[in-house]
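Issue 218. Parser rejects a valid record. Input:
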Amino acid sequence: MKIVFIGGRDIHQIGGIENYMYNLATQLVRKGHEPIVFCESDHEGEETVNGFKVIHHKSPKSVFVCKIWLGLRSTLHTLLHFKDVDMIHYNAWPPAIPAIYLARLCGKKALIMGHGHDWQRTKYGPLQQKLMRIMELLGVRSARYRLMCSDAQKKYFMDRYGLESTTMPTAINLPDDGTVIKSDILSRFRLSSGKYFLYLARLVQDKNPDYLIKAFNCWRPEGYKLVIAGNNPAAPGYVKELHEAAAGNDDIVFTDAIFGDDKVEILRNAYAFCIPSTIEGLSISLLEAMSYGLPIIASDIPANREVLEDDMAIWVRPENVEDIVNAYRKSIQEKDWFLQTAIHNRDKIVTYYNWESISDRYINVLNDFISH
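Output the parser choked on:
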């Protein structure tokens, strides 16, 4: 099959959607298929990555307009240069509207994959959020084929719109505990193994790193630090607020975005992973943390509940400082139980969330879509 993926930022600056496209495309190549990935970038160009073609389209600065522009340009490029494509896969609603109508009008099969409820994202203003709701409605009704990254999303679209969709979770590459890595990140930031809570994600409001900082300022567990690993060049004001909130507390450490061996090292040696988000699709960072055997402090939202079982995490209400303070405290006071949950969670990831099995599932679903 020839499959075009549209959506996401520069594939070399991997976030959630970028991670999904990169790893799924890599598996598809290994299994004899031909994926093509379009992504928004700071430049124009083409390259080959892991055997698949990546096409960069320079995008406008607007976080809202850039997705629509990417969808239209990429769809036109596909229609002109890849006429034998079997499926166009749009990631999230903005790149698909109005591009998916153009694709279908030209006789191409196309699907939309939901990665979360975009209208809930705080990076958008009230008017943009309203437009996102309209895009969600238009997108879900325009697509004959719909994939959702979680059962919670699948249920939402059935309950709200009466439309069927197929759950297609993301996955991760399982860590190799025997791999020798070269990283000095612990010494660079004066961190001790097993003595820091870890936040590893983009610095955006709906993921709530500010609440982790506020809670850590309220109760400072002796000997432990809070590591904030991530950045967000698109929202420098919010990033500045985070640094200001942590000012004066030397136990809160900002590493900026980390990749490669630094990321492996920071995950291998954390005490616990924190995901206090108000909104998630299916967090790749959460899956990665679980695969590294980290116990979890998680916001009580459907996407997190889908991966974590009731008694296998410490649950907090989103945007609630008191809950996070209590979670920090409980994680240390009940350390033996907390660390034991990590073993169960790691086994779950190994069984259900590896790319080998998810890519097979994806291929089977696409074959079914294409044959009908």
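Fixed in the parser; the record now loads. The radius of gyration is 21 Å.
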